[in-house]
Amino acid sequence: MRVHTILQSILIQGNRPPKSLYEYNVGLLRGGVCLLAILVATIYLVTDYWEGVDAGQNVYLTLIAGSLISLVLNRKHWFMTSTVVFLLISSTLIYILASNDIFHTGVYLYQLLIVIVAFVLFGYSHVQWAIVFAVYILIQFFLAYHYNFRPIPLEVTLDAGYARFSVLNNFIIALIVTSIFFYFLLRVNLNTEIQLEKKNELLQKTNEELDRFVYSTSHDMRAPLSSVLGLIEIAKLTNRPEELRQCLDMMSGRVKNLQDFIREITDYSRNERQELRLEEIHLATMIKEIITDLRFGREADQIAIEMEIHPEMKIVVDQTRLKIVLNNLIGNAFRYSDRNKDNPFVKIQANARDGSIAISVEDNGVGIAEEHMEKIFNMFYRGSEKSDGSGLGLYIAQEAARKMGGKILALSSPGLGSAFTLMIPQPSLA
Fold first, then answer.
1. Is the CB of residue 110 less than 8 Å from the CB of residue 141?
2. Taking the model in full, what pTM does it have?
């Protein structure tokens, strides 16, 4: 695991994700500030101990404890509370040190840093809180350096040499801490830009797909409706029962096509919006139910079904999305079967493979030409002259597989048949 990944898990890991990207990034920054405060307090503890100065030890220990509390609150996603606790404790402790800084070693530099941190952590949406802390720190500065008001007197004894060293030490540490803080800020901004670019690319892709989706769906929904209306007009012109029956059969087919198309649109919407929900299921039971539903009304009684799946096999999947995928793969195997062959079949297998479950659907149907293979998972693409579908099925199936962390692999030869394999990662097998 990379270092920044470990740091992220330390700074903001919790039981639920933040509400927004901004909240997440500021949470990382807030956690980093807490770690910086702990580091600085530890450095001062060590240097003072080395020089035999113990006046500020309790202040540094309190700062460490307060920063740890703020870090815990940050990890629990109590972001506002975490910010207020850290700023209140740190600014008050710095004021105590500054009010006892009779040698003027530059402790006030940290007051400026706290003001900057306040404005960054509160952000524009809570800028009034940052202003309150800025005024609070300004009052502390005047009390410490103009009125010499010391709420907690500390017995500070420094020789001239260590006093000069403290001035340099405070400046260098304040400079380093400020630089690290701004590095964190720049890194967070960079991560935000990268994630926004990815979201923009995804949004652009979604908009393009939406344009195509609206155009193609409106066309594909008008076609069967227009056909039904035309058949109704034809039926009005005849009284012959056989012709009426033929019109009704044709209308029934058009309505079924429209029904399948609406189901595909519903599957598309459900896959895009629904959160991933993993559960343990019996695979063979689900596939038998799907086969029963698909064979009804598809004239698939003459197609042999071969299932090579252990009846007790259990897998961990999103059941809704798995049904979407298998409905498409098995439905296509029935739809594009070659009834001119003596033994049309659909073979369904499942086995564990490299920490995943591989579910394959194979048929000896009409197959897909090689020039279509690279495009069969594109939205609204029809890969066979025999195709009477919308061209959404395989696209939706592949998208559903990706939502589950898997993928669909395809092999096909014209006249020989096709084989589609769904690969789904299995936590229990990893």
1. no
2. 0.51
